[in-house]
Amino acid sequence: MPSFSWKGRDRSGQTLEGVLLADSKDAAVATLKRQQIQVSAVKEKGKEIAFLPQLPLRISTKRVAIFTRQFSVMLDAGLPLVQCLEILGEQQEHKKFAQIIDRVRADVESGTSLAEAMKKQPAAFDNLFCNMVAAGEAGGILDIILQRLSTYLEKTVKLRGQVKSAMIYPATVITIAVGVVWIILWKVIPVFAQLFAGLGGQLPLLTRTVVSASEFVAAYSWAIALVIIAVIMGTRAYHRTHRGKRIIDGFLLKVPVLGMLIQKIAVARFCRTLSTLISSGVPILDGLEITAKTAGNAIIEDAVMAVRKSVEEGKTLSGPLKDTKVFPAMVVQMIHVGEQTGALDQMLSKIAEFYEEEVDTAVAGLVKLLEPIMIVILGTIIGTIVAAMYLPLYTILGSIG
Q1: 3-state DSSP assignment of residue 6
Q2: How far is C-alpha 70 from the chain's CA centre?
Q3: What local confidence, expressed as pLDDT, does residue 55 receive?
Q4: Which of 23, 229, 259, 288 is buried deepest, with most CB atoms within 10 A?
Q5: Is 162 in contact with 289 (CB distance < 8 Å)?
Q6: What is the pTM of this model?
């Protein structure tokens, strides 16, 4: 479909210009007239907008949340849809996201619905976003839906931020500690080894072990690095497979402390997502399918899809949830109450709020638990290396005495 650059005036006499996708020049003029624009010039521009390649870059959830909040405020203020998109595209600092918004605006100008236009841009707008926008357009409450979407995305960003910020400290400490131990084994221990070799005599077992480890690190550092990289890449590749993803995710759920945290995060995400979809008018079957894909864990995803199948057969939501044995009993009971009272979306929202607070508490507890464990492990490693280096000195001093 060709694109046409145009100029014209609106009803107030203000000069406007833009780019429009249309089958022909006459079709472009007709579209502009329907928008109550008095056309002064229309010129075929080419097909660059229609055939721009899909962007591989994934737009961050935080950036989409800010866009959604601004979009909802503009619509609530009474600005036309196309004008909102035009303003948001112009003020967007992220170039790729600005291109995406411009494509959505061009599609909407050509007569496509907002939801369908956003579906063409999966780098920024996922199925959940597009389905909620479609429900908002169908019900004439797009501004309200965008407000709910922005709230949902902001809470999602906050939840991820809590987990990431909590993991920064232990990850940094472990990385620095591994680097220090590596340097000691690679550069420091060989100096002591030469000293001990010059003194002669039989070294203690602990010293010989540390010196051997140092020699291995010095000789095969490149091989160790390659093995670590291969293990990481192999694990990630295996996790992308259907079987591998379920084995690894199932193992993570069984890890003490960490498994409980992953479960709480998944429950909070499930309840928040499903609550937002149901309150926005998305059918529960579609909502469960979308929620399953956002679970973040293959085991929980399979459980939600099994629940969806049972609901499709006419069963309630709480019964199949209980059968999966993945969701806590309290969650199942509260969902059952929500179904009985006809306030399922509100009950899911309350569960989500509760578990988001639980995640915050669990993350703080995990960090406090990791601190003494890291201190003990690092102290043991450093202490062993120091003891191994000083044992021969004590032996020599004893001999002299």
Answers
A1: strand
A2: 21
A3: 40
A4: 288
A5: no
A6: 0.65
Compute the distance between CA of residue 186 and CA of residue 146 in angstroms, rounded to an integer. 57
Tell me if 101 sits within 8 A of 10, measured CB to CB: no
| Numbers of helices and strands, H then E, in the chain | 16, 3
Structure tokens at 67: 């866009």
Q: How far is CA 74 from CA 82, 132, 148, 165, in A?
A: 11, 18, 15, 32
Q: What local confidence, expressed as pLDDT, does residue 200 receive?
A: 64
Task: Enumerate domains of the chain plus CATH numbers.
Answer: 3-29+36-46 (no CATH), 61-152 (1.20.81.30), 258-354 (1.20.81.30)
Buried b (16+ CB within 10 A) or exposed e, 182-199: eebbeeebeebbeebeee
pLDDT computed for residue 46 by the predictor: 52
Pairing of strands 3-9, 38-46: antiparallel
Residue 173, SS3 per DSSP: helix
Burial zone of 132 (CB within 10 Å; 0-12 exposed, 13-18 middle, 19+ buried): buried
